Amino acid sequence: MILSCLSLLVLLVSILQPVAAWFRLPCTTPVTEGRTDWISDPGRLPSQHVHTVQGGINFLPNTTYDILRQSTCTSCVAKEDLSNYWYPKLYFRDPKTGKLEQVPDGGLTVYYLFRGVDDKKNGGSGLKAFPNGLKMLTGDPLRRNREWERGNRSTQAALSEDAVEWLCRGTDIRSLNTAGGFPTIKCPQGLRAGLHFQSCWDGMNLDSPDHKSHVAYLSDLDNGKCPKTHPIPMPHLFFETFWATDKFDDRWEEKDGWPFVWSTGDTTGYGFHGDFGSGWDQELLQHVIDDCDSTPDQLNGVINACPLLTIQEIPEAQKCKTPILYSEDMVGPLGNLPGDNPIWPFTPQTPDHQL
Ligand SMILES: *[C@@H]1O[C@H](CO)[C@@H](O)[C@H](O)[C@H]1NC(C)=O
Ligand SMILES: *[C@@H]1O[C@H](CO)[C@@H](O)[C@H](O)[C@H]1NC(C)=O
């Protein structure tokens, strides 16, 4: 499952933008799973909801940049990148029994996209590497509906709603990008859930109380300009996650509603979110941005084309596992979500949530 997803070359809609360079960082099996969150819930064990976690092995309740840099391995393929990447787990709620079962995780690919008017290829002065210790959160775990009209990108709040996207795999292209809410139909090849991150920095703060206000989205989310308040342009991160929802297709009916729920208790999908804690050495990442921006493979985003990075074999990356700090049944069938997070009441989705 993981291997087949990693080998998929899923084209982002926006790679059709001119002269965009980028690379794709495939991650393998999660470095850990569970209720730890060193950005939103530092020092707490267990944290509020269970996550799928990729990257550096030192994913601990009290992780700091220095601790992360001491990681001895990563579950993703570039050995120099010790960053952590994490997002909630998905559960199937059996309509007959009400019990919850974990949806098999089909893997994560992190896209490093060099975008926006400040990128050299677009005539700008060049993107800047993530400062050492940068942390950020995209999306909002508490969001349960859409407030801004689709495609209205006039504010950061509106951009943040567009930062979540879905692909109901194996269906018509029209189910691409419901811009916030879960699909409502069966996805014969499973669900792809995407997350765009902020690519502009205020130049001062590595974090902020909401883990967002020190960074900002580009004016077109994955292209355009940085706001004046956040003038430092950085690479654009995009998480592409896969979920084997199709495994449950014979156990639910579309007329009864979408039966999948995030580990936060969110049944709407609007609350999908992701975290990034940079574990890069800033100087090295700057070289990668400057020197791997014009590799011959840039159109395919093949990471192996960048000679500055050591690419490990997938079986080696899969051996990287954080010791389990808090043990609980996350697989199910379970009566309640881990942490007993209440499940949001089912709200039928209005047609404008679909293209
Ligand atoms: C995190 O660090 C604090 C302060 O040193 C400590 O009290 C706490 O026990 C640590 N938490 C965990 C889960 O290790
Ligand atoms: C975006 O939405 C706001 C609030 O509804 C509205 O005032 C504004 O005109 C909209 N902008 C665009 C470009 O649609």
Task: Give the helix/strand layout.
Blueprint: H1 2-6, E1 21-26, E2 32-34, E3 51-55, H2 65-69, E4 84-88, E5 90-93, E6 100-102, E7 105-114, E8 135-139, H3 156-162, E9 164-168, E10 191-196, E11 200-201, E12 215-216, E13 232-233, E14 236-243, E15 260-262, E16 273-277, H4 282-291, H5 314-318
Antiparallel strand pairs: 1-7, 2-3, 3-4, 4-16, 5-6, 5-15, 7-14, 8-16, 9-10, 10-14, 11-12, 11-13
Bound molecules: 2-acetamido-2-deoxy-beta-D-glucopyranose (2 copies).
Care to describe what's here?
The protein has 355 residues and is mainly β. It is built from 5 helices and 16 strands. It has helices spanning 2-6, 65-69, 156-162, 282-291, 314-318; strands at 21-26, 32-34, 51-55, 84-88, 90-93, 100-102, 105-114, 135-139, 164-168, 191-196, 200-201, 215-216, 232-233, 236-243, 260-262, 273-277. Mean pLDDT is 88; it is low at 1-19 and 347-355. Helices cover 9% and strands 21% of the residues. It has one domain (18-318). The structure holds 2-acetamido-2-deoxy-beta-D-glucopyranose (2 copies). One 2-acetamido-2-deoxy-beta-D-glucopyranose (NAG) binds next to loops.
Summarize the structure.
The chain has helices at 2-6, 65-69, 156-162, 282-291, 314-318; strands spanning 21-26, 32-34, 51-55, 84-88, 90-93, 100-102, 105-114, 135-139, 164-168, 191-196, 200-201, 215-216, 232-233, 236-243, 260-262, 273-277.
